[in-house]
Amino acid sequence: MTPPPIVPLPGLPAGARALVITVSDRSARGERADTSGPLLAGLLSGLGLSVEDVVVVPDEVPAVQQALRDAAAAAYDLVVTTGGTGLSPRDVTPEATAPLLERPAPGLAEALRRQGAEAVPTAILSRGVAGTLGPSLVVNLPGSTGGVRDGVAVLAPVLAHALAQLRGGGDHT
Fold first, then answer.
1. Which H or E element spans position 125?
2. pTM for this entry
3. Does the residue 145 lie in any domain?
4. Which residue(s) pair with 19 in the sheet?
5. At what angle do helices 145-166 and 106-119 cross, to 10 degrees?
């Protein structure tokens, strides 16, 4: 697949960095190739963010929380998880993320579910959350490639403003 052209978002803060965390038992064990994480990294890079290698962790609350804490400590502007947002007993990404959020952004999580449901009705079953952790905007996306594409479509129009606000700018013009 050819990566999308890089068209930086207008107003994106200089040097904005993103980290993608894939939450998947099978990918963490090397039993299944991670498809959503690399796609997400490519899409975010296409928006003009500097994106590091995808971090893969198992569906375990401590592992997810440590990856999120490490990302915030490294001052990533954006941290996006993919996977672990459904209803299966092993889907724990929202439970791992929510207690760490300092300022929840429920409107963003609602918009992500609404966007996905237009194409796939079961998208409303996603339990992903969003909010801030230190200097980082944290967003949970589903583990499907379609959910990732839909999620980036929702994030793109608001991302530059959100990241500028986190850095202390982002006038409300």
1. none
2. 0.93
3. yes
4. 79
5. 150
